[in-house]
Amino acid sequence: MDEHEKSDLPPILAGCTGAAAITIGALGETTSSAEELTSTEKAEDTLFNGMPCGRIGGVSISRVLLCGNLLEGIMHSRDLKYVPQLFKAVATDEHLAALLKTAETNGINTVFGRGLRHVQRYNKGGGSMQFIAEIPVDLPLDKVKAAIKKNVDDGAVAHFTNPCATDELVRTGKGDQLTRIVELARKEKIPVGVGAWALPVIAFCEEKKVPCDYYAKTMHDARYPSVQLPDQRKEYIQASKDYFDNMWCTDAAQVAELFSKVTKPWIATKTLAAGAITPRNGMTFAFDNGADFVSVGMLGVHVKPNCDIARRLIDRARRKRERPWMQS
Asked: Residue 13: is its pLDDT beyond 60?
């Protein structure tokens, strides 16, 4: 980040230097001395089919969520243009219903972001999968209100602001509009989160006390071959002319440092850098560095091994991490 970009950061983030120690892999050690915080966690997690669950706005959420992008055929494939078409050809409705069944059997109780129609179809057939919906924030306010109401009418247990559009609001100085949308969403009596790729969004919300219940923020390290080169990285990375769908968290050390001071639950997204990082390393990195939940894109073959790994990593993180497990 150049000096001009640094000067634009909210005060709460300006002091985050990235110098705090950070767990960098499955066998790394966390040595940062996080400030003592009051956690809302008062008891051990409940379990859903063996998977530990936390709470967001009183709703029990499995600590591993199924990212809904793949349910809608959305696959980050960098410059491999044939991959999305190939995936859509093999991901039939039957395959996706089986994916949801496998996820629920292995302890995942919530789909995150997209895939509502598949969740509704699955539940009509006897499933009990929860859904966290997106709120579009780049529409006229009357359409945003309608989208918020539709999320509730569709049975979402929570919703969150679309990350890229939220980044753009804050980047262009329209943070007050984000605050207004969160306030509108809170009137519907289901938990509302703020989604972001860019860390200044979280800093803005903390500084301005935006009344959200949780955050959904990208978190992954930069140790994979297709990662954005250091001199190309910008905080609002999707707005960069050099961006080509290959990085979603530009400075994981700063993310961990800021969240060490945040007392709201955090769903870490893009924890595997869209498949560039192994599940073990990606989830270890997120949980050890403070994430309360992880949203992971998976196909059926991935679900059981990933959930088995996650249960062990959550138990490990209880003994290692500095940040308390947050609930709301």
From this structure: no
pLDDT digits (tens, 9 = 90+) for 152-201: 999 999 999 999 999 999 999 999 999 999 999 999 989 999 999 999 99
Range list of β-strands (E), 49-191: 51-56, 59-62, 64-67, 110-113, 130-135, 158-161
Quote the CA–CA distance of 75 and 62 in Å, as a whole number.
Answer: 23
3-state SS assignment for residue 214:
strand
Task: Return the residue matching tokens 């270890």.
Answer: 284
Q: 274: left (phi > 0), else alpha (psi -120 to 50), else beta?
A: left
Backbone angles phi, psi at 313, to 5 degrees: -70, -35
| Domain definitions of the chain by residue range | 55-320
Which CATH number describes the domain made up of 55-320?
Answer: 3.20.20.70
pTM for this entry: 0.86
Sign of the CA dihedral with 8 first, then 161, 191, and 113 last: negative
> Starting from the edge strand earliest in sequence, which strands make up the sheet with 59-62, in order?
46-48, 51-56, 59-62
| Contact criterion met (CB below 8 Å) for 110 and 129 | yes
Length of the chain: 328
Measure the CA–CA gap between 62 and 78, rounded to whole angstroms: 29
